[in-house]
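new request in #modeling-help
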Amino acid sequence: MSVLTARPSSGDSQRDSSRVESPAGQQQRVEMILAQIDQLPTLPTIALRVLEATQSSTSALKAVAELISTDPSLTARILALVRRAHVGVRADYLTVLRAVVLLGLETVRSAVLSIKVFDTFSALEPGEGAAFDRTEFWKHSFAVACAARQLTSQAPKGSAARRISPEQAFIAGLLHDLGKIALDACLPKSYARVVKVAAARRVCLCDLEREFFGVDHMVVGRRLALRWKLPSYVPDVCWLHHHPIDALPASIQFPGHIAVVHLADQWVRRQRLGYSGHIDFQPLAPLAEKAGVDERLLDELMAPLIEQVEQQCAVVGLGEVSTVKLYNRALADANEELSRLNLALTQTSRRLHVRTRGVDAVAQFTGRLSVTDDLLDVCRAAASSWRELLSAPLSAVFVCPPRWGSQLCTMAWEAADRAGSDVFPLPGDCVPRATTETRPIEPPAWSQLILEHCRMRNGNGDDQSAINDPQSPREWRMLPIVHGGELLGGVCFTVSAESPAAEERDESTDESLLAALGLALAGAISRADAGRLHEELATAHRQLRQAQDQLLRTRSLSMIAEMAAGAAHELNNPLAVISGRAQMLAMQFADPQDRQAVEVIHEQAVRCSQIVTELMAFAKPASPSPARVALSALLQPILRQWLDSCPLSAAQLTWHVADPAVTIYADISQVTTILDALIANALQATRPETARVHVNSLSRGSDETVVISVEDNGVGMTPEVAEHALDPFFSYRPAGRGRGLGLSKAHRLSEINGGRLWLESTPGKGTTVWVELPARPR
Amino acid sequence: MKSVYTTGEVAHICKVSQQTVIRCFDSGRLKGFRVPGSKFRRIPRDSLIHFMKENEIPLDNLETGKKRVLVVDDDEAIIDMFVELLGRDGRFEVRTAQTGFDAGLEANDFRPDIMLLDYKLPDINGNRVCRTIRANPTLEHMKIIIISGVADPDEVNGLKTAGADDFIKKPFDINGVIARVAELVGA
């Protein structure tokens, strides 16, 4: 029974709380409980009136029959009792008076009392939470009543028990635990606890009642019996039925009643007929002896008891089920319990099955990965695993790490018969907002976007069977992938009604796979970051190397400039003296030959000075003052001047500008120097009779830069020569022919004008030098 | 060449005070005349030379009619060449200095009509000398030609703004230099 499963601790705490009350407080509590008992409904008048009818005269029988007739429910139950006891009675003959006569006043009286007491308390049936089993209680009460009646009617003649009226014994037995039902009606929850604690701790119920309420059911029962004006033996039996018979005060009027009820109670407890809340037993022998009954005869004496109890129960409509039916019901109950257990087991099994699917999916997913996988590989594996987990028609996994500005989306999708992946920029309204919650997100724009991408990658736009079949409408779902409190991306998938696995989904399954996804994606992102860092480092290293080279070059150039400046001053002074003296001598010499000789001295001194000046101009050219001019306008006079001064014909020295709108933004005089140097270089590499020099520009007016090429069909350069062609004072020509500053000066000037210069040469075929310059101010 | 001098001019040439010149004029030791219609004293060139010889005053400061040229260069070979070149021409009176400091002293004393200045001097840079001379109002008529072996075009532009009248790069055409000097001083 449920009362046996209660935990003792709950009773202890209750007891403890009651113990802290002061004696005055406890007294007040007792008074309150008793006041509540007093408020219980009184026993219906009809019961009292029936009890008062003591003589079984005809008039008394008539009066009782009339009383019963006023109560239709009572009438029906008394007639039913007659039909049960006297099977042969014809229904149409049966009147209430006839029933009373047939049953006898005593039986009627006890029946009426039983019914009315039972009804009174049935009206006060407590609701949920009450543990005191009323049905079992009434069974116990009827059993004690019947037992007491049996004892008093069947005990050996002359015994103490025989001196007591069986009907009085019945009534006393019936009402001996009146206090319990009264307490249960007034304080249902507390009383349920008392019963539970008593059962768990296997102590006397009365002691616990006193501990909890300050009063026990005996006192309460006596009080109620007095109030209900029940026959005077009833209060005594209620009050003293647990009292040792030997210790009863002499003033007690009905010790016999008490003794009989006591014996009956103990015997009934042993037979476990009903349940009174008491679980303690007392030895029967002394009680039987007191009642004047041999203990060994008790079993025989009580033989018909069970039948009588059943009959009594039937009178009040209690336990109208036969033993077979009870057995059947117990079987049904057991079946019900079994099926409930079975259901729970099935549910657990299904849950476990779903979890296993989740674990399998995670295992499968991780099995698809390798440490070198990039983000797209992980997305592909994730989309595939997700689709398998859900048996979804389509699943897509996308990542847009916030660290990368959430602007670039990497996505992989998989459908039944195809799969794909894509990297695309996100429209601003589609960038998922940061969230750390693991709950579905609702981005309608997103699902549209994913759908569009899947469709687009599917080949032609008409073939949408795998993606968007109107016959099987699907629902788009999206779950966020979060790792380390950062929203990395999401899983997008379709759910179709016929998808069997959809129902078997479990949040924990989703979460475990999502967590694995998050971890794998975060790893891939970190790897990508590391890779990117590596590339950036390599680039930085390359740039550093270039800057170092440039620095080295600039440094050597500035050293050359400094050296050239010093040399210019130091050399130019003696050169000035040499040339000056030579000129003075020339004026003095009359002989033209002598004069020519000193003039040569003067010329060579000037030439020496020019070399120094050129070196100076190369190392430290004047700061450019750029201007914007049309390229053709710039080229034309330069070429014309060359045609005038060099032996080449117009067919040999040609030029072409593809777009007349092309402009150049640079220092004009320096660009002129560049072009002069390049043309001079080309002429020096060719023989005048076979030379072909072509100046060409294929640039367009819209270009940011202008590229001019100077192409010749001269001797060309070997790779070794070409490598050093831009170095100052390097010349592939025999020593003494030219100073080798032309190309390097052109290179230097194109650089300081924001451009560059490079060349390509084949020995025997010729050389092409390209110079690139800005087309417009930047 | 001047033929008549004022008392102030005589005082400058003889390096005495103007009062002394007036006293000598009034006592008759320095022969001269008064401008008709006024009391201004005038001394003819011949009587000045006679007076200077009589009193053993050097004739150096007496105007020779030649243009005064100051050549400033730390290179002696350059200086020698210029002294010979300009002296042979006959139109110029030449003095020289080898440092910036000497150049300043000579400019104040010699009051040259033109200075040929080397850009790189041992003590002071040419453009500094240039600027100092241009800051002195008594030397404002003096012309300056920078003659240098420096090839840096940016530096040449800086010299012109410092107050130089021209820049001639070494080595140079000697006839071109003489012609440019004569042109600038109006010789």
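bot summary: Chain B has a mean pLDDT of 86.
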